[in-house]
Amino acid sequence: MQAFLKDHVTMPAAKKRPTPRSRAKTPPPPSRRSPCPVACALDLFGDRWTLLVIRDLMLGRTRFKDFTASPESIPTNILSDRLGRLMESGIIHQIPAADGTKRLAYTLTEKGTSLKPILKSIRDWGLTWEPGTQVMQANPANH
């Protein structure tokens, strides 16, 4: 494991990642366990539900009711909490709903969209190693 971490720490980046403007101004959030990027990423989306909410956003779901309709049946109190955390961390933001009602919808920010290759890798791993898994389809109403 140490070789894995060492290789990833010293390995030159293939692409230069965008530097958030607030990085130099804002100290790290007090909820971080360590400066380790893996630990910090897990603090943001490493629980049982958060990546599923991000997956649903990538599949075109935008409304609270869309998330509750997913097959994993996320409890509404947990969904509210995860949406709030994702907004606080700059992974999603709220927008007016496309149907013209006063309700709000959610969409991924640039930071959130940058998680797409990670979710694809997790999906591909699951398809390869977990029998009976299948790819979820995008929400046709939003594409």
TrEMBL record:
Molecular function terms from GO: DNA binding
Pfam families per record: HxlR
Keyword terms: DNA-binding, Transcription, Transcription regulation
Top-level taxon of origin: Bacteria
Residue ranges, compositional bias (Basic residues): 14-24
HTH hxlR-type domain residues: 36-134
Protein name: Transcriptional regulator
Organism of this sequence: Brevifollis gellanilyticus
Lineage of the species this protein comes from: Bacteria, Pseudomonadati, Verrucomicrobiota, Verrucomicrobiia, Verrucomicrobiales
